[in-house]
Amino acid sequence: MRSRRWGLGAGLVAVVMAVAGCTEDGGQGEDGFTVGLLLPSRAVPRWEQSDKPLIEKRVKELCADCTIAYANAENDAASQRQQMNSMITRGVSVLILDVVDPKALRSSVRAADRAGIPVVAYDRLAEGPISGFVSFDGGRVGRLQGEALLKGMGAGADDGGVVMVNGDPSSPNAAWYEDGSRSVLQDKVRILKSYNTIGWRTENAHDHMSAAINALGPNRIDGVLAANDSIASGVIAALKSARVSPLPPVTGQDADLDAVRRIVKGEQYMTVYKPFRQETEAASAMAVALARGNDLDALVTTTVNSPTTKDVPAVLLDPVSVTAGTIGRTLVRDGIYTIDQICTPKLRSACDRAGLTR
């Protein structure tokens, strides 16, 4: 596997230059085409609030006459398969697929290939003959979560007890994150309970955490590895319902606004920020290049292997750990949220303590 890691600076410059090259080659006078965009759910806020509008905007910048055909699977693999097959039938030129269940969608990816429609796997590695893959380094995400959890636990990290509330096992990213976090936590803490959260749903995470509290008692839980912010929300609600005080450190991922506010309040210890603009720009550039019949050499940084396909051209971006003290120089600096969005009147004093001042 060849690999060139993409950081937040040089990698983004390279993508912009490569995208600019594609734009010059294609020109604004080319006939437009349709890009199919298939996202997995609405349970995680980022898909509708960040990824969809950013991809739509970037595709239009690269191809003014192009259109987007959009569908959201609502976390149902059968629905996504139907949506994808419908897009193949209508003759879209390229597909950006954030797959709900890679095995369930494998036949649809093969159908797209037979129809001459390239598929860019987005955020999650799809199976079948995909043409490219864009995501964040999932192992790095898990390691950042594990490292932050140990730091948040402080002295309690010395053989402390941890509950892991992982993602949906049908998602290839869930195991990627878990493996990364376990590589940090193993031999340092005791993993008392580990749960898989179907659909990444807050209510399922709440049930898992409630079960852990009932089984272990609140005083044995020194930290919680929550795979993303939706799961963290359910975990924290269960801890508060059980009157656990003080709350143990809880991790997260996706930098959802509610999670950022929980971090400011001291309820959630950290989240993992994945600069979605970089991911959406890379995927949009891949899709437009493939639809125009161009190769991806100038756009990719590595290759990855799926269970069905070797050496898939890929871009793996670097995630960023965010705690209360780094919100300003990450999320605010990058324009993800303003201080006014984060700092509601009830959070004003907590924001001042975190250095989030206007």
Can you put this structure into words, describing what you see?
With 358 residues, this protein is α/β, with parallel strands linked by helices. 45% of the residues lie in helices and 16% in strands. The protein is built from 13 helices and twelve strands. The protein has helices at 10-26, 46-62, 77-90, 102-114, 138-153, 172-185, 202-216, 229-241, 257-265, 276-291, 327-332, 339-342, 348-353, and strands spanning 34-39, 67-72, 94-97, 119-122, 132-136, 161-166, 190-196, 223-226, 271-273, 302-304, 312-317, 320-322. It has a seven-stranded mixed β-sheet, sandwiched between helices. α1 runs parallel beside α10 (276-291), α3 packs parallel to α4 and α5 (138-153) packs across α6 (172-185). 52% of the residues are buried. Mean pLDDT is 91; it is low at 1-29.
Quickly describe the structure:
With 358 residues, the chain is an alpha/beta fold. Helix content is 45%, strand content 16%.
Question: Topology, please?
Answer:
Elements: H1 10-26, E1 34-39, H2 46-62, E2 67-72, H3 77-90, E3 94-97, H4 102-114, E4 119-122, E5 132-136, H5 138-153, E6 161-166, H6 172-185, E7 190-196, H7 202-216, E8 223-226, H8 229-241, H9 257-265, E9 271-273, H10 276-291, E10 302-304, E11 312-317, E12 320-322, H11 327-332, H12 339-342, H13 348-353
Parallel strand pairs: 1-2, 1-3, 3-4, 4-5, 5-11, 6-7, 6-8
Antiparallel strand pairs: 9-12, 10-11
Helix pairs in contact: 1-10, 2-10, 3-4, 5-6, 7-8
